[in-house]
Amino acid sequence: MGHKRIDETMLYVHFAEAHLRPIPDAVREAQRDQDDPDRKVVAMLNARSSCVPRGSGPQEAPRTEESSLISAT
Which among 11, 24, 25 has a CA at the least distance from the CA of 56? Predict the structure, then answer.
């Protein structure tokens, strides 16, 4: 990560460990028969898209007149 000391990097490791979430069964099952690591990741990502409830992702910013003008050009 580019840190000069390992203890700086370990802050991120501890943070990630403290915020673990369970992996849905459908995601685990999707990668089961894959030997190639790349195919395994793609299979898990495809399965994940069917597990995530609609509306639980990042919220889109409300459109303003200014943003409408920018996107129209």
Answer: 24
CA dihedral 28, 19, 36, 57 (to 10 degrees): 80
Model confidence, pTM? 0.45
Question: Is 54:60 a contact under the CB 8 Å cutoff?
Answer: no
What is the DSSP secondary-structure string of 17-49?
Answer: HHT--PPPHHHHHHTTT--SHHHHHHHHHHHHH
Q: What is the pLDDT of residues 25-56, one digit of tens each?
A: 999 999 998 899 999 999 999 998 877 665 55
